[in-house]
Amino acid sequence: MPALPGTSANARAETLNANIKLTSAVTDRLRLNATYTHDNRDNQTPRPHTPPFPPTCSWCSQNQHALQLYPGQAETERDYRIATGTKGAVGIDYDSRKRTFQEVDKTPRIRSGERSTQSAGQRRFDLQGAHGERSASGYKAVPLIAFPENPLLRKFYLANRTRDTAGLRADIGVTEKINVGLGVDSSKDDYSDSSIGLTSGNDLSLNGDVSMALTETTSVTVFAVRQEIKSKQSGSQIFAGPDWTGETKDTIDTVGIGVKHVAIKDKLDIGPITWSRAHVAQSASAPVRQIPDSPISPRRWTA
Fold first, then answer.
1. Same domain, 193 and 224
2. Cα separations in angstroms, 283 against 155, 157, 187, 289, 295
3. Disulfide engineering: 153 pairs with which of 145, 180, 196, 269, CB 3.0-4.6 Å?
4. Does one domain contain both 116 and 247?
């Protein structure tokens, strides 16, 4: 093992990015969009092999290799105008990720969705839904892992997954200067092929905002968001099949205010400058014990 600390990390990474986009107006009411994206990231930074320390848990592991990632993505979408004030879109998205020194070499994902928009006067409604499936190549142990993992474990970001999403958004112009927006988004994940690890997840988000034009150049927005994330997982105490299950629940409440000012029309905008505060409540339960809640209240400025 080389002496520490080292004088240089000898860091090196090669990247290759390519983007192709095609847009075609097939008819006056039908438009076709197609996109292909390729992103190649090769981390060539050397990592010296260090003797591992004894683990304090059976799932601890070390990886002495750098990551190479070769994702490619292609998507196509068709926009069509159904009638005056009504617009729809259907699309399909295919994403394939190849990687080295991971339990899974390739994770292709395909997603199809539909979106519709209806406008009438000062009202606008958006509805969208999508279904996606991710299938992983053969799950295997990573060479040179210092401490082995349960062979039934499937990491959630590499495992087979089915995801269904839906969303609804309404924007209503109360007056010429005041606009109210309300929205709801939901997501459901199913990891039915995972015996050990995350088995399901549900995400529900409710949001609302009110925008007001104070002057011709200054506007203010107040908003509130409530997000609730529930997940279930299975584990093993004896390094075998599942013998316990647990549930976690995260609730995130966010409120904030933003200000935008047009300093020079069509040339210089200031903002939006946003202040937000979030309260995060986390809880988990398992058959053996109840884990106490852990509230967090971060504050954030953005511009």
1. yes
2. 21, 22, 20, 12, 9
3. 196
4. no
pLDDT digits (tens, 9 = 90+) for 126-138: 999 999 999 988 8
Tokens 């409710």 correspond to 206
Domain enclosing residue 133, as ranges: 1-149
Instruction: Give the pLDDT confidence of 3-44 residue by residue, as tens digits.
Output: 556 677 778 888 989 999 999 988 888 888 999 998 888 888
Cβ contacts of 295 within 8 Å, gap of 6 or more: 279, 280, 281, 282
Residues facing residue 76 across a β-bridge: 34, 92
Task: Report pTM.
Answer: 0.79
* Region 132-148 average pLDDT: 79
Three-class SS of residue 144?
coil
Residues 144 and 171 in one domain: no
- Are residues 49 and 117 part of one domain? yes
How many structural domains are present in the chain?
2
